Amino acid sequence: MKLGVFTPLFAKLSLEQMLRKVQAAGLDAVELGAGGFPGADHLDVEGLLASADRARDFRALIADHGLIVSALSCHGNPLHPDPDIARRDDAILRRTVRLAERLEVPVVITFSGCPGDSDTARIPNWITSPWPPEMLQTLEWQWNEKAIPYWREATADAREHGIRIALEPHPNFIVHNVDTALRLRAAAGDHLGVNLDPSHMLWRGVDMPQAIRALGPAIFHFHAKDVAVDRANTAVNGVIDGRSYRDIAQRAWSFRSVGHGHDLLVWKQIMQALRVAGYDYVVSLEHEDALMSTEQGFQTAIDTLKLALLREAADEPWWT
After folding, report:
1. pLDDT, tens digit, 9 for 90 and up, residues 208-236
2. The domain 2-309 is classified under which CATH number: 3.40.140.10, 3.20.20.150, 3.40.50.280, 3.30.540.10?
3. All residues at 6 or more sequence positions from 105 whose CB lies less than 8 Å from its CB, including other chains
4. If both were cysteines, with which of 68, 241, 266, 301 could 285 make a disulfide (CB 3.0 to 4.6 Å apart)?
5. What is the pTM of this model?
6. CA 226 from chain center: how many Å?
7. Which among 195, 205, 250 is positioned nearest to 225, based on CA atoms?
């Protein structure tokens, strides 16, 4: 597996400054924002789409730094009940797929989106319980009338351009765990998979090696981000928490740099599970740790992941 980084944490750096920094850190890959929630700080999306020469020069610049682009990310909500937001995020996704084709990047990452509770809704409605009865009825309407039709068509479009779509399972979106990811993949086809980020699952009690085993070939990309659960706060209120991410002292859980929520053994087990599942692509570290500076979070994550990854292939056993 290769080690990379999701580059919005270096948004203040120019493209070349960022590439030099990543290269100096000994990494192999960059994951670039192309719009939506991560923005597009290191990509001139329209310029690259308009000029094959600029796209060729961009690919050469990445290669000259000894790197690859593992994915283009455009996290958004193309199922949003507000039609203006849905159209905007759908357009960003389609544009990113075409840019990925031009830049020879195999994966586009986004969210599955979340509809409202009816065609007249204006705000997404993430349903997590089947009762009262109208909740389950609404959830099935969201799947059958919104999510499945949209992602069947969007996945088919991406397939025509040779691109795989990796949905990041995330709370507040219709794909938020293994079960929902596999349900949508079964409906939309095998060009739809996941960008797996343990930080969105560990606080809900998911055993990541078992989740990885269940997902198997549906894992197209992997985010390395940790989460720390505050046992004192969860003992009182549980893990469902709507407080601001900045209210760390009172929150049930907070995002942390790799190794600062779960120890090295847990991360070794996660990396081992990825290998056993056949994943041999990029582990892309993501920094959203409010207790660490960018530099500190970046370096500590690298140090932990290098220990966990076992980057050199093991010797062949004597008994083979």
Report:
1. 999 999 999 999 999 999 999 999 999 99
2. 3.20.20.150
3. 69, 70, 71, 72, 99, 163
4. 301
5. 0.96
6. 13
7. 195
